[in-house]
Amino acid sequence: MSDTNGWATPGGPPPQHQPHGGWPPPPQPGPRWNPDGYGRPGVIPLRPLNIGEILDGAFTTVRRNPAIMLGVSLVVVLITQFVGYLVSLPLLDDLNRASEATNRVLTEQQALDLATDLLTSSGLVAVVSGVVSALGTSFLDGFLTVVVGKAILGRKPTFGEAMKEAAPRLVPLLGLTILYTLMIFVGLLLCIVPGIYVGVVFGLATPALVLEKAGIGTAFKRSSLLVKDAFWRVLGVLLLAMVIAWVITQVVSLPFSLAGDFSGFTTLFSGEVPEYTEFGLAIATLGTVVALTFTAPFSAGVRALVYIDQRMRKEGMDFQLARAAAAPAAPPAGSTDPTPPSGIPMGQVTPEQPEPPKESSGEDKPKEDPEPPRPS
Fold first, then answer.
1. In Å, what is the CA distance from 156 to each residue of 67, 68, 324, 357?
2. Which stretches of the chain score pLDDT less than 70?
3. Rounded distance, CA 165 to CA 58, Å?
4. What is the pLDDT of residue 171?
5. Is 214 exposed, middle or buried, given 0-12, 13-18 or 19+ CB atoms closer than 10 A?
6. In this predicted structure, what is the pLDDT of residue 74?
7. Are 153 and 325 in contact (CB under 8 A)?
8. Using alpha carbons only, what angle is made at residue 186 by residues 236 and 73, rounded to the nearest 5 degrees?
9. What distance, in Å, lies between the first and last C-alpha atoms of the chain?
10. What pLDDT, on a 0 to 100 scale, did the predictor assign at position 190?
C-alpha cells in the first residue's frame, strides 16, 4: 500500500490507486490497519505499544496538558499533605522523647510507656494519612485517567470537561481503591509474593472502571482478563514506572529533606541528639508535595496506557480508537453511539473490517492490495 508517511490517516480513506482500465477503486469506509498502526492522532500510535512508547506517552501527556494535570495534582497533593502534616505534629514530641532516651538508662516501665506513646501516635498518623491519601488518590486517578483517554485521541479537555466525566466514577473508584489497597496489604503479609501478584492482576482495574464506566467487580474482572497471559510484561512496565517515580521523588525531595533536617544532619558528626522540629517537618512535607505533583500524573498515565495497550493487543481496540479520533469530540443530540465521551469504547471490541466489494465481471478490474497481517 502506498503511503508517504507510513501511517493511514485516522478516520479517512486509505491512499487511492490510479484507476486501471476505467475501473475506479472500491470505497474504503473507516481507517485501515497497516504495519505502523492506524496513525497517531494523540500521544501514542494506535497499535500495540512497546515499553518506551508507554513511558513516552505518559510524559507527553503531561507536557501537552501541564495546566490541567500538574495544576490539579498540585492542589490535591497540597491538601492531602497538609492534613498529614497537621496529624504528624503530635508525633514530634514522642520522637524527641525517644531520641533523648537513647542517652540515658530507662526503667522497664518507662521504656514500655515510651514505646506505647510512640506506637499510638504513629498509628494515628498512619490511619488518618491513609484515609486522606486514599481519597486524594481516588480523585487523581479518576481525573487523570480521563485526561489520558482524551490525549490518546489528540484532544485537550478543559477542567470542566474532565471533571464532568470523572465525577460519577469517584465514589466507586474510592471503593475500588480501598479494596485494592487492602488486598495488596494482606497479600504482602503473606510472604510478599501474593501481594505483588494481586497488585499486578488487578492493577488495570482503575482505568477499566473509569473509561469503561464499569462497576467495581466488573473492573477487577476486566483487569484480570487483560493481564492474563501478559503478567510478566505488565509487571515489568508497572515496576519500571515505580522505579522512575521513586527516583524522581528522591531527587526532588532530597534538598528539602536536608534543609528541613539540617540539625539532624550535623548531629551525625557532632554526636549530639537530633531534634525534630515543626519547621523541619514543614520543609520535608513541601518537598513531598513538589515530588508527588510530578510523579502522580506520570504514574496514572502509565497505568492507563498499559490498559489501552492490552486492549489493543487482545481486543483490537486500535481500530475503534482510530474511528473515535476521527469522530466529533461530542456526539450529536439523540445519538445512540455507545462510545462514551472519552472516546474509549465500552466492553470488549473486535476490529471491524470494511465489507469487500462485490465481484464484478471483466478483465480490467484492478486488484486490491491485501490487508497486511496484524501482529499478535
1. 11, 9, 15, 38
2. 1-36, 261-274, 327-376
3. 20
4. 94
5. buried
6. 96
7. yes
8. 60
9. 21
10. 87
325, amino acid identity = A
Give the distance from CA 287 to its chain's centroid.
22
SS3 call for 272: coil
Per the listing, cell 492482576 goes with 201
Amino acid at 183: M
The C-alpha atoms of residue 149 and residue 162 are separated, in whole angstroms, by 10
The CA-CA-CA angle for residues 205, 206, 207, to 5°, reads 95
341's CB contacts (< 8 A; 6+ apart) are 161, 164, 165, 330
Residue of 250, 255, 276 lying closest to 264 (CA atoms): 276
Question: CA–CA separation, 251 vs 349, rounded Å?
Answer: 42
**What phi, psi does 58 have (nearest 5°)?**
-65, -45
Segments in the chain forming alpha helices (H): 51-64, 66-101, 108-152, 159-166, 170-189, 193-201, 205-211, 216-227, 231-260, 262-270, 278-315, 317-326
Candidates 153, 156, 157, 155; CA nearest to 10 is 153
Cα separation, 210 vs 168, in Å, equals: 9
The rounded distance, in Å, linking the Cα atoms of 265 and 272 is: 10
Residue type, 107: T
Grid cell at residue 269: 558528626
Q: What is the pLDDT of residues 322-354, one digit of tens each?
A: 888 886 655 544 443 444 545 455 544 444 444
Interval 31-46: pLDDT, tens: 555 555 788 899 999 9
Residues in contact with 60: Cβ distance below 8 Å, sequence separation at least 6, in sequence order: 43, 151
DSSP letter, residue 350: -
Torsion of CA 36, 39, 44, 46, to 10 degrees: -70
